[in-house]
Design a protein that fits this description.
This protein is α/β, with parallel strands linked by helices and 252 residues long. The chain has one domain: Vaccinia Virus protein VP39 (Rossmann fold, 3-Layer(aba) Sandwich), CATH 3.40.50.150. The protein is built from 9 helices and 7 strands; from the N terminus they run αααβαβαββαβαβααβ. Bound molecules: S-adenosylmethionine. S-adenosylmethionine binds next to helix 4. It comes from Mycolicibacterium chubuense (strain NBB4) (Mycobacterium chubuense). GO terms for molecular function: S-adenosylmethionine-dependent methyltransferase activity. This is Methyltransferase family protein. Residues 58-148 form the Methyltransferase type domain.
Length: 252
Amino acid sequence: MTDAMNAEFDTVAEWTAEAARELGPDYYVPAGCRGSGSPAALDWLIDELELTAGESLLDSGGGVGGPAAYAAQAVGVTPVLVEPEAGACRAARRLFDFPVVRALGSALPIADAAVDAAWSLGVLCTTPDQLGLLTELRRTVRAPGRIALLVFAAREPVPADEQPEGNNFPTIGGLEALVQDAGLRVRAWRSTADLPAIPDEWTRRIDAVTDAMEQRHGSSQTWRLAQHQSEQIGDLLAAGKVTGEMLILAHA
Ligand SMILES: C[S@@+](CC[C@H](N)C(=O)[O-])C[C@H]1O[C@@H](n2cnc3c(N)ncnc32)[C@H](O)[C@@H]1O
């Protein structure tokens, strides 16, 4: 990982947990979702995967654990998180006390067909081994292969100097080819641009977490690096050069 990605996914993940703990339990899930999912996106993914109480949900690249916690609260799934950054693993344990394994999504320390369902949200574009990550999801999720992705995809290949450091956005066509090469097929596909607006209260809680972190760490180089990364993604999304794509997959 690059320094900027370490800042964003390791150190800032721990700061997120610290800020959420100060603000209180109502802030844990929105804080833990700062990296990607809105309530409407998560509701759609949960619905399409037909997740039900007691089922295991693998979250590959689970970050601070907010999306897994949202699903656990919404439908009673039992999450298992895999995440390569130690700071994010500690943050997820601290906020949600889920089982978290420190590993790459392309080398999951999980037996074949061991979980009922899996998702990987906002992760694919941050890893060089995109096919490896998908192949591992296929291997570890039992048939019929209930797998979901949230992917930041490029309309056209994005020039390297416009990409946040270490990111590699697949094109839509590239994403379709990756899915096929991994032995998977698309069951449903929706762009995040079509989703209902994010509730004001959710945004207010995320802003409160961000403000608390900025107050404490705003002058640090790590904070500036992480902010720069997320601003670059924000700019690409605003310009329509990158879009958020949600895919529901199954074994081919
Ligand atoms: C944008 S964050 C999303 C976190 C979380 N999925 C969410 O939606 O809130 C991307 C996450 O992917 C993780 N990551 C990066 N490379 C990875 C890899 N090769 N395998 C699994 N996770 C990875 C990062 O450490 C980070 O936690």
